Amino acid sequence: MSNLSLAYIFYNHKLLVDDNFQLPKVEKLASDLIFSSGDQVIARDLLDDEAIPEGYQLIPIRQLIAQWTRAQFEQASRAVQLLEWRRNHKFCSHCGHETEVHSTEYAMVCPACGYRQYPRVQPCVITVITKGTDEILLAKNARNKGNMYGLIAGFVEVGETLEEAVARETLEEVGINVKNIQYLSSQPWPFPSNLMLAFKAEYESGEIKLQEEEISDAQFFKFDQLPETPFAGSIAHAMIEHVIHNKKMP
Ligand SMILES: [Zn+2]
């Protein structure tokens, strides 16, 4: 059955997998998005009226972080982002003409004016801030109904360095100044198309003052008295483990 392709089939950020979280194998269609790594892996959207095959279910891709390896999750993340990009670029943003899928590159090409649209990622900084040798800043997002405390994060603005974004977001969201900003690691995060850039920094000055539309609470917590924190598989989890237990960043 070598003519079958392994398929990432999405429906509203949910992915079709079997009971063991394995992908289905399907016959390739002309409209499928093909991964450049070979033609045996494709991605497509499940149609509104298409039935879910027996033995399969739709799982939110966030949940697959815990089930899959990092490499598997990253490929799924790439698939969902490329599909979304293709869906959102059916017309030329320069002249308005209908676009065509480039035959070999990930590009949507305008046959009228030649303009090419490529997939974009949104750089987003996330920062773990420590104070002294045993305190960490954790903040509760105002939109989060639960009790989970996370890290300070935000989009990089036009014309800004990553370090400037870290300092600005921290000052805006919790009113403090940080020093010794250092890059740790990165993670593609397909919600919807972010590249999370992880930094660590140390508290320098200022009192915590919340930006209330964004943050409902923020405190320096002792390492041994943490509240509920982000789940394993997220970069925030790895960052907290890194500063508290000196674990290596993935
Ligand atoms: Zn055009």
TrEMBL record:
<dbReference type="InterPro" id="IPR020476">
    <property type="entry name" value="Nudix_hydrolase"/>
</dbReference>
<dbReference type="GO" id="GO:0006742">
    <property type="term" value="P:NADP+ catabolic process"/>
</dbReference>
<dbReference type="InterPro" id="IPR020084">
    <property type="entry name" value="NUDIX_hydrolase_CS"/>
</dbReference>
<dbReference type="InterPro" id="IPR049734">
    <property type="entry name" value="NudC-like_C"/>
</dbReference>
<dbReference type="GO" id="GO:0005829">
    <property type="term" value="C:cytosol"/>
</dbReference>
<dbReference type="GO" id="GO:0046872">
    <property type="term" value="F:metal ion binding"/>
</dbReference>
<protein>
    <recommendedName>
        <fullName>NAD(+) diphosphatase</fullName>
        <ecNumber>3.6.1.22</ecNumber>
    </recommendedName>
</protein>
<dbReference type="GO" id="GO:0035529">
    <property type="term" value="F:NADH pyrophosphatase activity"/>
</dbReference>
<dbReference type="Pfam" id="PF09297">
    <property type="entry name" value="Zn_ribbon_NUD"/>
</dbReference>
<dbReference type="InterPro" id="IPR015797">
    <property type="entry name" value="NUDIX_hydrolase-like_dom_sf"/>
</dbReference>
<dbReference type="GO" id="GO:0110153">
    <property type="term" value="F:RNA NAD-cap (NMN-forming) hydrolase activity"/>
</dbReference>
<keyword id="KW-0378">Hydrolase</keyword>
<dbReference type="GO" id="GO:0019677">
    <property type="term" value="P:NAD+ catabolic process"/>
</dbReference>
<keyword id="KW-0479">Metal-binding</keyword>
<dbReference type="InterPro" id="IPR000086">
    <property type="entry name" value="NUDIX_hydrolase_dom"/>
</dbReference>
<keyword id="KW-0460">Magnesium</keyword>
<dbReference type="Pfam" id="PF00293">
    <property type="entry name" value="NUDIX"/>
</dbReference>
<dbReference type="InterPro" id="IPR050241">
    <property type="entry name" value="NAD-cap_RNA_hydrolase_NudC"/>
</dbReference>
<comment type="similarity">
    <text>Belongs to the Nudix hydrolase family. NudC subfamily.</text>
</comment>
<dbReference type="InterPro" id="IPR015376">
    <property type="entry name" value="Znr_NADH_PPase"/>
</dbReference>
<keyword id="KW-0520">NAD</keyword>
<feature type="domain" description="Nudix hydrolase">
    <location>
        <begin position="119"/>
        <end position="243"/>
    </location>
</feature>
